[in-house]
Amino acid sequence: MRRFAKRAAILGAVLLVLAIVAAAAQYWRMRQVREALYDAFTPVTITNCEFERFGDSNDGGYLLCANLLDQVQAAYSYGIDGRDEWGCDVVARLTVPLHQYDCFNTEAPRCATPADVQFHVACVGPERAMIDGRPFDTMANHLEQNAHAGTRLVVKMDVEGSEWRSLATAPDHVLGAIDQLVVEFHDVEDPRFLETITRLKEFFHVAHVHINNYECRPGLDPFPSPVFEALLVNVRIAVTDPSVDARGPSPLDAPNNPRTADCQSATAQSELQRIGGWIFRYWQGLLIRAGLD
Fold first, then answer.
1. In whole angstroms, what is the distance from residue 78 CA to residue 204 CA?
2. Which DSSP string corresponds to 91-113?
3. pLDDT band at 113 (very low <50, low <70, confident <90, very high)
4. Using CA of residue 111, residue 115, residue 119, residue 125, what is the dihedral sign?
5. Closest among 51, 88, 76, 54 to 66, alpha carbons compared
6. CA pair distance 156, 78, nearest whole angstrom
7. Is 153 helix (H, G, I), strand (E, B) or coil?
8. Contact 79/100 with Cβ under 8 angstroms?
9. What per-residue confidence (pLDDT) applies to 171?
């Protein structure tokens, strides 16, 4: 019995050490991904850009280079949830067709200003598919269906994580036609996301980043939140000055959640605090997945 208990104790200790090593390896791997992704989204100064806010005064509002919209011929708004202040503001300014897409909330939003607006009960994805009874299709197919292949575009995308693969698989001619692309990105720890932003930067400069304060939490440094908004401006229309640091909030920024302070930078922490925050988030995630939280 003693021999069995001793062997069980040794086995338990070995398993504990292996679990700690595995968790430590995952921590460093995810931290490296986050740091590389954070660096990849460093904004550059675009000297010919005049920022203006389009959409809601809080969640649903995004910055665009207002003076670089004059060649846009159509607007696409992905992820509506029954409201589209951004799209309505854009078409009120430009008087171009607006195509809105959402397959979760199928209520068609209305614009106060008369405009050529079409709402589609469909979502954007990396391929054409029916998922849980909802239709998904690619940006390229949407443009073909609307006779907008080769048309110069302004695009907004807030699609709860589908943005990464949708943009990663978009063909060159689609990305090249987008003058300005504003995206709410979700999650910051998948190594494949680095490939996506690397591809996007072949066509765009990162002009502005704003953190969504609905999701501020520890353990994601250097990101203060896993959700952030980014304005990407096509390289063919942007004039940049790499000598000027463009990271930081704009006076036009506003918290997505007006009841909570913004969180545009991660709180400075010691290494132990960083690891502790990550462990807390890691175990919280395990509990949520197990249905225990």
1. 19
2. HHHH---EEEE-SSS-PPP--SS
3. confident
4. negative
5. 51
6. 6
7. strand
8. no
9. 97
Rounded CA-CA distance 181/174 in Å is: 11
Residue 208 in contact with residue 184, Cβ under 8 Å?
A: no
Tell me which DSSP letter residue 266 carries: P
Angle at the Cα of 170 (from 143 to 103), degrees rounded to 5?
A: 60
Lowest average pLDDT, out of 74-78, 109-113, 124-128, 202-206, goes to: 109-113
- Interaxial angle between packed helices 2-40 and 192-200, expressed in degrees from 0 to 180 and rounded to the nearest 10: 0
Three-class secondary structure of residue 212 per DSSP: coil
C-alpha distance from residue 238 to each of 32, 72, 233 (Å):
30, 14, 7
Q: Closest Cα partner for 178 from 158, 146, 200, 163?
A: 200
pLDDT in tens, 1-42: 666 666 666 666 555 555 555 566 677 788 999 999 999 999
Let me know if 173 is exposed, middle or buried by CB neighbors in 10 A (0-12, 13-18, 19+). Answer: exposed
Residues of the chain above pLDDT 70, percent: 82
Strands 227-234 and 204-211: antiparallel
Give the confidence band of 118 by pLDDT, cuts at 50, 70, 90: very high
pTM: 0.87
Q: Report the relative pairing of strands 98-101 and 74-78 from DSSP bridges.
A: parallel
* Residue 63 near residue 52 (C-beta atoms within 8 A): yes
User: What gap in Å lies between CA 144 and CA 146, rounded to an integer?
Assistant: 5
Cα pseudo-dihedral 163, 169, 173, 176, rounded to 10: 40
